[in-house]
Amino acid sequence: MSRSAELDALFAAARAAREQAYAPYSRFRVGAAIRAESGAIYAGCNVENAAYPQGSCAEAGAIAAMALAGERRIVEIVVVGDGEGLCTPCGGCRQRIREFADAATRIHVAGPEGVRASFALEELLPHSFGPGHLGR
Prior knowledge:
Elements: H1 3-19, E1 30-36, E2 41-45, H2 58-68, E3 74-81, H3 91-99, E4 106-111, E5 114-120, H4 121-124
C-alpha cells in the first residue's frame, strides 16, 4: 500500500469513528484512528456524559482498542473533528499518545474534508515525560 493510500485508510477510519461519536452536550464529534506497528488500524470516538468529567476522548478510545489487541506502539494517528479550527489532541491525550509513541510520531489533524495539518508529537508536547524517565 502506498504512503498516500495508508494515510487515506487511516483518515477514513477516523472519519467513520467520528460519525459514531456520542456528543449530545457539546455536539462536537471527534474520531481518531491509530496505525499500530503491525499496520493494523484502531479507531475510537468521543463519548460524552451528563457528568462532564466522565466523558472520554476519541484518542483514548483508539489507544484502548490498540492496547486491547496487544499492540504497544503508535506509528501515526489521525484525529478528525467538527468545525473550522484544528482539532488537535487535548493535553491529556497528548500524554496518552506519548506513552505509546516517540517524539517523531506523526499526528495528523483533520476536518471531515481531509487532513488539515500534520505535526510531530514533539511539536505538540515538547520536553515530554515518558516511560524512559521511569527506567523503562
